[in-house]
Amino acid sequence: MDFTMLLDISTGERVSALEHADIEHAISLNSGDIEIVQYDWSLPTSDVWISNFYFLQMSLTPRHQVPQVTYLDVDRRISRSIGRVMLVPPGRKVHTLGGDGRERSLQCSLQPNVISNLLGREPNWDEALLVEGLKLNRPEVDCVLLKIYDELCNPGFAREFMADLLLNNLAVSLVRTLKLHHEEPLENRGGLATWRMRLIRERVFSEQPTPKLNELAELCKMSVRHLTRAFRTETDMTIASFIEHAMVDRARNLLSSSDHSISEVASLLGFSSSSSFTYAFRRATGWRPAEFRRQSRFSVPLSTSH
Known about the structure:
- By secondary structure, the chain is α+β, with helices and mostly antiparallel strands.
- It folds into two domains: about 180 residues, Jelly Rolls, CATH 2.60.120.10; about 110 residues, Arc Repressor Mutant, subunit A.
- Helices cover about 40% and strands about 20% of the residues.
- The protein is built from eleven helices and ten strands.
- The strands form two sheets. Strands 1-4-9-6-7 form a five-stranded antiparallel sheet, covered by helices on one side.
- The longest helix has 20 residues.
């Protein structure tokens, strides 16, 4: 990964994240670089850095303490906690603060020209898009990242060619989901107001049972029909798919890192029975919950289909 470290705080109470990283798998391609990295920190971390690439990180294990990211090169500093998937555009000055503990991540560095060649121009990264990238909870992007992960862990015929295709697929997914092909700012593209999207994300990714559409509509002070149409306009995906993605994301964490039974996980997610949860989880992932738990705990790479 190509970083320019501007400040490496490695004394006192904080250390640099990069000092405690074990690279499990790595590959360099025409479109960029891919790594699977195991981090192990005994102290909180602090780094100021610039990536020369589009930097995407997907946490493969639950984050013990959610890191905080601050953009230092915008008119008013943007500071947010990051999601399971984080995207930072090239050339941005960023300060990251993280907690101690262990984390395993998939990291992709995508060459800037891959996206600019797709668009025929440089994308417009306004503040709304920078914030969006810090919690990139998009199933389309997740799907491609998991395929990349599987290709690194289970290399097959023409591994480099396939991995390069997947990186280009990732670039297309980013352009589509973030609407980088639109030249107007994100907040002016119609759909849902920023405060409504924030309420939906906070509720959908909360620790409460999976919400119903009428609950989200009431939360946004809209009809179900208006909400579903506006959400589709805003995100290019259905709100039902978004809810399912959040459910699967939370289910993965519960299955891999908790001792709850399958029935208890189903109840926590709002399912009436373990069988209905099993059906929904398998439909979304290709895995039964028990199979997923077994594989994840023995650190066997998970395929995106089964």
